[in-house]
Design goal:
Helices cover about 80% and strands about 0% of the residues. By secondary structure, the chain is mainly α. It has one domain (about 5-250). The longest helix is centred in the C-terminal third of the chain and has 41 residues, at about 210-250. The N and C termini lie far apart (about 55 Å).
Length: about 250
């Protein structure tokens, strides 16, 4: 399918409407160019506002918003620490923020005149690269340079250690594996959300005849949005867990 065909099946959103209104202005093309960034910033702003109002007047007996936020934060903390152990709590803010941000972006495509920024590979790749950089930084910080390289070589001992070829081969395999992680992490998220948005756009084009299918597909899209945010966060947690496990083994 051509890019033009894909674009025509997308539901109209705030940015495309503004681009149509101001199409004769010199800055109108930049609206489409930065469309996904604009929607990702809108979601970030919404999350910041929710966090601000939830924390503005914290009470011993929380109100509804504060209570909801505390339940979500507590659940995310249990999720991360359940996999990584107590030391994983330091990574809860990062992983929890990823989950909430991705979930909101996934669901935003179901809101009239909004779009899921995660349907763009540029957005999901940026998120995956943030995970990649943080994981590599954690690896070097916790294990040291030589310890991290030793982990990538599968900690060779005895004859294998002095064979050179096998440790070098393992190092190359693991380096390629680490470099591939951002691609698989980003493409999995982008492809699923893009497919859901595309399907909803096609069904919306059927008019009233497509309403039953549109409602059913919207329900499935909500489930997919939660699942994809969970999968992204789960894999991120596992990447960190491997580093912490190696760190604990190194201390022993």
């Amino acid at each position: 399918m051509s890019q033009a065909g894909v674009t025509n099946t997308e539901l109209p959103n705030l940015v495309t409407l503004l681009e149509g209104i101001f199409k004769n202005t010199p800055w109108a093309p930049y609206l489409i160019l930065w469309e996904n960034i604009i929607f990702s910033l809108i979601i970030a702003g919404i999350i910041l506002l929710i966090a601000f109002f939830a924390c503005r007047k914290k009470r011993l007996i929380p109100g509804r918003l504060q209570n909801a936020v505390e339940v979500i934060v507590g659940g995310l903390d249990e999720f991360v620490c359940g996999i990584m152990g107590p030391k994983g709590r330091r990574y809860t803010p990062f992983i929890g923020t990823l989950f909430i941000y991705i979930l909101f972006m996934n669901l935003s495509g179901l809101v009239p005149f909004m779009k899921s920024a995660t349907s763009s590979w540029s957005v999901t790749l940026a998120l995956a690269l943030c995970v990649f950089v943080y994981v590599q930084y954690t690896g070097f910080k916790e294990l040291g340079f030589f310890g991290y390289v030793d982990m990538l070589m599968e900690k060779p001992t005895g004859f294998v250690k002095f064979s050179v070829v096998i440790p070098l081969l393992m190092l190359i395999i693991h380096l390629v594996s680490e470099l591939v992680k951002p691609l698989t992490l980003s493409l999995r998220l982008r492809s699923n959300i893009w497919g859901d948005d595309l399907l909803l756009g096609v069904l919306a084009g059927f008019g009233m005849k497509g309403v039953p299918l549109l409602l059913f597909s919207s329900f499935l899209a909500i489930i997919a949005a939660v699942v994809q945010a969970t999968v992204f966060s789960l894999l991120t947690t596992i990447y960190f867990a491997f580093i912490l496990l190696e760190h604990e083994e190194k201390k022993v």
